[in-house]
Amino acid sequence: MDFKKILFKTSSVDVEKSLPDGVILITKDGKIQWVNDTITEMLETSKMNLLTSNIKNFIENVLNLAMNAAIANKPVITKLIDKEMYFDMTARAIEEGFLLDFRYAAEITPVQEEKKEEDLTVNRNKNNFLIKLTNDLKAPIQSIVGFSQAMSDGLGGNMTLQQEKYIKIINKNSTELMYFIAKLLELSQTENEIKELDKKQFDILALANTVVKYNEQLCKGKEVRLTVKAEENLKKTVCTDSELIKNIMQDILEVILKSVDMGEVSLSLSTPDAELIEVKKLPKANYTLLSFSSSALLLSENDLECMFDPYKIVDSTNRKNVLRAIVLASVKNMVQALNGIVWVESKILNSTCFNVLIPDEN
Prior knowledge:
Helices cover 46% and strands 22% of the residues. It is built from 13 helices and 12 strands. The chain has a 5-stranded antiparallel beta sheet with strand order 2-1-5-4-3. Strands 7-9-10-12-11 form a 5-stranded mixed beta sheet. It starts with a helix and ends with a strand.
């Protein structure tokens, strides 16, 4: 491969010696394939050492940052491992991996660095507090749910019609509160830190069928038809974290099914075309597109604006949708952990579709 053509689409420039930026070509797992002379000076090492190393040995969290920079098409701040040296890094996704460009960043003062670390600590403490709080609340609410259900079933003896009515209200509200707490806990956990990914091969269509079968109980008493659709040439065996995929499917289906009483709700699996990948500014790779559509779920512009951000809803007119935004914020965190993206499309008086693009790590 002619790396000069990758950079300049010409062979007339000596990239290794002339370019003022540090440039590195890496594979998707970070192995360094090519460097120019400038980057050896910036990283204070030799070209031979770089070409026999992984970029992760030099730059903190570099692969995730490269993915984010490539998708956003904007530079990100990177830092050397074990050294207070910072760079502006831009990334371009290519078939082999990433083309990374480094420039010296403006000096970050100790005050700025301290403020950044303080913000991270506050956010971490907030999430740890929410996790502890929700766990402490679960036990008493579970007791209310259990005892109210037992009384409704006649375990405490006969009750008057009025008492039965009140017990059913208590059971219904406590059950809904329990669900809310569970989703708030999930959001706090995904914001704090998602566990190390367990990537392995599995049949994604079989998983989709299992999740849809489980959610059929939410359709009882409703005029809702729940279906799974798969593209004819769909590659069923994928390699990623199946547990996160299952949670993503479950959460989005719950959001839809709790909001509609009729119509068709479908989960469609397909292979996206290259144009969609380009429009979404994703690195070249094999992707699976999960589309969750509902003919009865109609959303306003205000709904779409706060769809994945529950913190905005508190100060808006959409307070009733806080729970939905909490669930979808967790979905967004899980999708991003898989290096994918999620978005929603809604056509007025027509349908709503949640789309998830997940890369296949095979």
